[in-house]
């Protein structure tokens, strides 16, 4: 699934999250149309966060939690992999800080 460049570089827009959730639900329907016993079309979500962009991490958290809450039934058993890029920059957030600011510990019953 490709997103416009401006989303990748941080110009968050509500429509992109809505489109992602819609696309995710469409994928779920494809999996279910093959029969409930069939495996979900994917088993991993990779979420990339700009590790140096401290003032946008709240938006990243809100978007992640919204996706996971609105699609919680479909994503119940899906593993979440969080990548924090730009770790080589001097003011980049470390793992503990990113984990805390994204609220990953509040994602009970989820592998991340």
TrEMBL record:
It holds the Pfam family Arf. GO terms for biological process: protein transport; vesicle-mediated transport. InterPro entries: P-loop_NTPase, Small_GTPase_ARF, Small_GTPase_ARF/SAR. GTP binds at residues 85-88. GO terms for molecular function: GTP binding; GTPase activity. Keywords: ER-Golgi transport, GTP-binding, Lipoprotein, Myristate, Nucleotide-binding, Protein transport, Transport. Belongs to the small GTPase superfamily. Arf family. This is Uncharacterized protein. It comes from Gossypium stocksii.
